[in-house]
Design a protein that fits this description.
Distance between the termini: 55 Å
Helix content: 55-70%
Low-confidence stretches: none
Mean pLDDT: 85
Radius of gyration: 26 Å
Largest sheet: 5 strands, mixed
Number of strands: 7
Shape: elongated
Structural class: alpha+beta
Number of helices: 14
Strand content: 5-15%
Order of helices and strands: HHHHHHHHHEEHEHEHEHHEE
């Protein structure tokens, strides 16, 4: 690394340099107009995106998450157009307005515009589930992490606009309960923490599905929970995703290690950014849904480990 900077820092510096280079030599007044236009478009887009979004949804029956993004882009586009036309109408030749030293000072509004643009991108990277290695590089970067710390106030509006389409398109990772297939996660981490809140939330969702189908709610079992937690953490630490451990042990083998008494036992796995997406994905899978709704099971243990930038690992262990 150059001066302890990673590739994210170098990309940010490169973007700042390109914006500055483009502005260098332009009249300061024009750059100020570009900055005001950019800022105004951003504010109005985050404030008024719902209006065109409702139009797109009602007229074209587009998925709700996508309409929010389309509404946001529509407001931004028209704001820029209207601002440009107003400037042309009021100031037919703004390029003739000169300020001493503007060829150098014009870099300042250009840099501010680029910083806002970079901040938006970084907040989106940090907020939404993407390739963990990229997210970790952002959080480890010197320049990027500082910009992100300042810009986290944008997290809420960014989630409102782009969160829907992210959830609509997001896929989660799982493996059929009856297969020995193994997925290499591509990373290993011991920087994990127990997420007991998600465990309880998932239990509530599971029992809601069971009782909705006239089934009995599962009893939460602490021993099964420990089995699930251990496997969840092991997959993060050794970088794999499978019902079988690298030594070939199954959920039944793991249960016997914990001196669990059972006649039938089953396991569901999910690797996802949230409880809702994990449970939704499991219920949309025939094999996992069968485990969740099966009358053969009366107890459940759920283990959820939070890997930070790497997402969350969910393990459900069922027994009679």
């Amino acid at each position: 690394m150059l001066f302890d900077l990673n590739w994210v820092d170098l990309v940010i510096i490169g973007i700042l340099f390109l914006f500055a280079l483009e502005a260098l030599g332009r009249p300061l007044f024009l750059e100020l107009l570009d900055f005001i236009s950019f800022l105004l478009a951003g504010i109005l887009s985050f404030s008024c995106y719902n209006l065109p979004a409702k139009f797109f949804e009602s007229q074209f029956h587009i998925p709700y998450g996508l309409t929010l993004v389309m509404g946001f882009m529509t407001v931004w586009f028209f704001t820029e157009i209207v601002f440009y036309l107003l400037v042309k109408l009021i100031l037919p030749k703004p390029q003739e307005i000169r300020i001493m030293g503007s060829k150098v000072l014009s870099v300042i509004p250009a840099m501010l515009r680029s910083l806002i643009f970079i901040a938006l991108i970084l907040v989106m990277v940090a907020t939404f589930p993407i390739q963990p290695a990229i997210k970790k590089s952002v959080l480890d970067s010197k320049v990027g992490s500082r910009i992100l710390k300042i810009a986290y106030g944008l997290e809420s509006p960014v989630k409102k606009v782009f969160g829907g389409v992210t959830n609509d398109s997001l896929t989660f990772l799982t493996i059929d309960p009856k297969t020995s297939k193994k997925v290499n996660l591509g990373f290993q981490t011991d920087q994990i923490s127990l997420d007991s809140v998600s465990e309880i939330e998932m239990l509530e969702l599971v029992n809601k599905e069971r009782t909705a189908g006239a089934g009995k709610a599962l009893v939460y079992d602490e021993n099964l929970r420990e089995i699930a937690r251990a496997h969840s953490g092991d997959m993060f630490k050794r970088g794999y995703f499978s019902h079988y451990s690298p030594e070939g042990q199954t959920v039944a083998d793991r249960a016997l290690k914990y001196e669990e008494d059972f006649l039938v036992i089953g396991e569901n796995l999910a690797y996802a950014p949230s409880v809702e997406l994990a449970e939704k994905g499991l219920m949309n899978s025939e094999g996992h849904r069968a485990n969740i709704l099966s009358g053969d099971y009366g107890r459940i243990g759920i283990g959820v480990m939070d890997g930070g930038v790497y997402g969350k690992m969910f393990v459900q262990v069922f027994a009679n």
